[in-house]
Design a protein that fits this description.
The complex is a heterodimer of chains A (about 290) and B (about 300).
Chain A: H1 3-13, E1 17-18, H2 19-30, H3 36-44, H4 47-57, H5 71-78, H6 80-91, E2 95-96, H7 106-126, H8 131-143, H9 146-154, H10 156-169, H11 173-181, H12 185-195, H13 200-207, H14 220-235, H15 250-256, H16 260-266, H17 270-281
Parallel strand pairs in A: 1-2
Helix pairs in contact in A: 1-9, 2-3, 2-6, 4-6, 5-6, 7-8, 7-14, 7-17, 9-10, 9-12, 10-11, 12-13
Chain B: E1 2-7, E2 28-32, E3 38-41, H1 47-54, E4 61-65, H2 71-74, E5 89-94, H3 104-110, E6 127-132, E7 139-141, E8 144-151, E9 157-164, E10 167-171, H4 189-207, E11 212-216, H5 221-225, H6 236-246, E12 250-254, H7 262-275, E13 283-286, E14 292-294
Classes of the chains: A mainly alpha (about 290), B alpha/beta (about 300).
Chain lengths: ~290, ~300
């Protein structure tokens, strides 16, 4: 790990979560009889909270004998109160500002992450993946772009230039990141995931989610996230999207047995998931 | 090895005329191997009398395993005489508190801060050492081998398995078998149920070959369903069911509710035995203070 990366990770360690999540978690946990499933839903829908909770429970602090791969499994394993207190302590750090010097649109990022997660879960259902694994697929979709948050908050001035160039040229953002920063958000996200000891399948998926050339060697999860990312991009608001749609590599198309356009059509649950994601990113009852 | 129950009350000490037979002291188990190695699990108020008795054979040498640091499992520690006596060798083991990121010695020394207790931990004369345990870490203490596993409870709680003299004992600490947080009609219900099943299998594996299970059974089924779900404690029936599932021949029901009288415990025990008439295994025992069993 380079010194620069370490600096970025240290920044992420201190990084607060989304303001909407903070409001909701504090509201929910201030009543003593909060339904555990509501808490799970809140944590599972916030990429930073999810990643931080998974990072903490898989860290040496806990010293657990088995790896925790989802929030639900964590609740069964170490108890809902422990997960609740972790979420509160993460939320208590404060709220991530919705505006940042990079001009990186946090609401758009969050919506895109949620839709990618949901699309991955729908693809899992369609491909007959067991329900338990479908949660991991959702998490992989939720976290695939986490490196963008690291870059936007860790080097805002540089990332502003990247975002501007990618938009002007109408190209995939990863190429511009590599050209101007010498790294890309997939690499940074996977380094962060590895640093935080997230399950290797998540780390690998984050690392290769733009790596069309390697698609033939992707495991099913990698195929699904590549496709889900494109599905989500098709639904992104055109003025707020940061990356253009990439064509599906042959291997992914063969695995699905569908083109991207047909995939969007057969994912029946997608419109409802999209509405849910957009509603979730809005603050309940106005801004705090 | 021999097990002696030194405290089997949950939540808070509850002395009084109604708790004379089962005892009012909070959780403490004394395990002694044939070679004389003393392993203590939890330091509720029951550890005070144990400390006094151990002083009959100085220097005291023992290991204390803490399931979790709720008051009723540590409150007796400042009154454990061997800690104050030069020459004592006391090893204290337990988990790190991952939420507050505090080590076991930090948490235990907090209850000996001057505002709570007149003697600070720095004034203890015994030789006290601490070991922070990872899940599954094996501690060899003389002739006893102690393993731990994370149990389902609102806070981080280790169950301990003590193997010695070819026999095996398991104490759950506080334990509520996980319940599904989703309703059967929810999409997530099955997935959550599968996680619970997977967790149960891990626990059953840890219990394989155990001879005696000492387990949290604070509530009746009726009490549990009437508002105690999620409080972190099991019922008489979930406790016996775990022993049955794991094929354990003897189960001690403990962590008695502080409001439970001796007569009520007798009545509940009689009811359980009547329900189980004709079934010999597991033998169901209501834990009481002072009860000693060869394991």
């Amino acid at each position: 790990m380079s010194a620069d990366n370490r600096k970025l990770f240290e920044m992420v360690e201190r990084m607060p979560t989304f303001s909407q999540s903070v409001v909701r978690i504090l509201q929910l946990t201030s009543s003593g009889d909060a339904a555990p499933k509501e808490l799970v839903r809140l944590v599972e829908h916030d990429p930073i909270l999810t990643m931080k909770v998974l990072k903490l429970v898989n860290s040496a602090y806990f010293g657990l004998g088995r790896q925790v791969t989802s929030i639900k499994q964590g609740v069964v394993y170490i108890g809902v109160n422990t997960i609740k207190h972790l979420a509160i302590s993460i939320a208590a750090i404060g709220a991530l500002p919705r505006e940042n010097a990079a001009g990186f649109d946090m609401d758009a990022f969050w919506t895109h992450s949620l839709v990618t997660g949901s699309a991955a879960r729908l693809i899992a259902q369609r491909q007959g993946i067991p329900r338990n694994d479908a949660t991991t697929w959702f998490i992989a979709g939720l976290l695939h772009d986490i490196g963008q948050v690291v870059l936007a908050h860790g080097m805002p001035a540089e990332y502003r230039t990247v975002l501007k160039a990618a938009r002007e040229r109408g190209v995939c953002i990863t190429g511009v990141e590599r050209e101007l920063l010498g790294t890309d958000h997939a690499e940074i996200g996977s380094l962060l995931g590895a640093h935080w000891k997230l399950p290797d399948e998540l780390v690998q998926t984050i690392a290769h989610h733009h790596d069309a050339a390697a698609a033939a060697s992707f495991p099913p999860l990698g195929m699904a996230i590549f496709a889900a990312n494109q599905v989500a991009k098709l639904t992104d608001h055109p003025d707020r999207a940061v990356s253009r749609v990439e064509p599906l590599p042959d291997a992914v198309r063969q695995w699905l047995g569908l083109s991207l356009e047909d995939l969007v059509d057969v994912l029946d649950g997608l419109p409802a998931e999209l509405d849910a994601a957009r509603a979730f990113v809005q603050i309940p009852g106005g801004r705090p | 090895m021999k097990l002696t129950m030194r405290g089997c009350r949950g939540s808070i000490p509850s002395p009084g005329p109604d708790t004379v037979r089962y005892g009012g002291n909070t959780t403490c188990l004394q395990v002694e191997t044939a070679a004389g190695d003393v392993v203590i699990i939890d330091a509720g108020s029951g550890i005070r009398q144990l400390g006094l008795e151990l002083m009959a054979r100085v220097p005291v040498r023992c290991a204390i395993f803490i399931t979790h640091t709720h008051w009723d499992h540590i409150q007796g520690l400042p009154f454990f005489t061997p800690l104050f006596v030069p020459g004592s060798e006391v090893l204290i083991c337990g988990s790190f508190d991952p939420v507050y990121r505090k080590s076991l010695p930090e948490i235990l020394s907090q209850q000996m801060q001057y505002c709570f207790f007149p003697v600070s931990d720095t004034e203890l004369k015994g030789n006290i050492s601490y070991e922070t345990l990872r899940e599954g870490q094996v501690v060899q203490y003389g002739s006893a081998t102690v393993r731990n596993i994370v149990m389902s409870h609102p806070v981080f709680d280790y169950g301990y398995r003590v193997n010695a003299d070819g026999r095996s004992l398991f104490f759950t600490g506080d334990f509520e078998p996980p319940v599904n947080i989703y309703a059967p009609e929810d999409d997530e219900y099955e997935e959550y149920a599968a996680s619970i099943t997977a967790q149960r299998l891990v626990l059953l594996e840890a219990l394989r070959g155990v001879d005696t299970l000492v387990i949290d059974a604070q509530y009746t089924e009726t009490e549990y369903r009437a508002g105690k779900v999620g409080w972190g404690h099991g019922t008489y029936h979930t406790a016996i069911a775990l022993a049955e599932d794991a094929g354990i021949p003897r189960v001690l029901l403990t962590h008695h509710d502080p409001t439970r009288t001796d007569d009520a415990l007798d009545e509940i025990h009689a009811g359980l035995l009547a329900e189980r008439a004709g079934r010999s295994s597991p033998e169901v025992i209501m834990a009481r203070e002072g009860l000693s069993l060869e394991i």
